[in-house]
Write a structure and sequence with these properties.
The chain has one helix and three strands. It is an alpha+beta fold and 85 residues long. It has a single domain, classed as Translation Initiation Factor IF3 (2-Layer Sandwich), CATH 3.30.110. A three-stranded antiparallel sheet has the order 1-3-2. It is elongated, with a radius of gyration of 15 Å.
């Protein structure tokens, strides 16, 4: 799908921890990756429209912690039946 006029539905998928109050587990990150892969391979096949790359630096006691995450915007010509929000 190269023509953006065909895009009727956009799914936003966050991979990584985007909320410092709630760090995502490895299983949750793997689940997001699996959803992204399904969006790009199953019918109707989606296309990546944009990728947001973000990070934040937190101070935890005397340590600095960096949270990183990617947000994929996947566009579809129609909403997939298998995609449940």
């Amino acid at each position: 799908m190269l023509d953006l006029t065909e895009v009727r539905f956009v799914k936003r998928i966050v991979v990584g921890s985007d909320n410092p109050a709630r760090i995502r587990t490895r299983d949750e990150v793997a689940e997001a990756e699996t959803l992204l892969n399904r969006c790009l391979t199953d019918s109707p096949r989606g296309s990546i429209l944009a990728v947001e790359k973000s990070f934040t630096v937190l101070q935890v006691n005397e340590h600095q912690v960096v949270l990183q995450w990617l947000v994929y915007h996947v566009g579809f010509s129609r909403r997939p039946v298998w995609l449940v929000d």
